[in-house]
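Appendix B. Worked example

We walk through a single record from start to finish. Start with the input: the chain for V-ATPase V1 sector subunit E, Coemansia javaensis, length 230.
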Amino acid sequence: MSAVSRPLNDEEVFSEMNKMVAFIRQEALEKAREIKVKAEEEFNIEKAKLVRQESINVEEQFRRKVKQAEVKQRILTSTLINRSRLELLRERQAMLDSVFADARAALAAVPDDRDAYAKLLVNLCVQALERLDDAAVTVRARRADAELVAAAVVEATELYRQRTSKTVRATVSDDALPDSVLGGVRVSALGDRIAVDNTLLARLTLSSDKMLPQLRNTLFGQSPNRKFFS
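Next comes the structure step. The output line below is what the pipeline stores for this chain.
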């Protein structure tokens, strides 16, 4: 026959309650530990994400700054190269200007030798007559050369007749050329619609244009960018 159950006394009830409280406390501690571990895991995951994202941002900023620095360096290099090239071009142009200034000064002294200059005027007149090939021409010259040019025209028309079997009426104009032409003549025909500028300045300009490539090559050497040569 089974024993008859009896109600718990106060001490037993208190003991059972303590067991229940201890169990609940243990469950709560384990749950708290789980929550703490999970929170730490989530924190570490978020922390790793933030660190990784920040690393990406830092790397991107670094690449951007490096790229900006490279662009600035290229711009600075290009600016310095262009500045040096322009300075070199200015120096070369100054040298060419000096050469042409010396040539101009030498031409300005040509009329000082009157005998040689008189022969030159005849040749310049004959050349102009042959190029114009007209029956009537007008000759202009500096006022200082009026006497020499008048004599040169007479001789030149005769030489022209001998060479071409043609006669030409050459008139020396009272409209003098400026002294800046350095000397020589300007011969025109058909009411000045066609003309040959055989002044010393014009001949210097023409010769300078033709000789400029050769002069550059002589003074500065061949350009590495030049592909074709005459």
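Two observations about the output. Strands lie at 136-141, 169-172, 184-189, 194-199. The chain has a mean pLDDT of 88.
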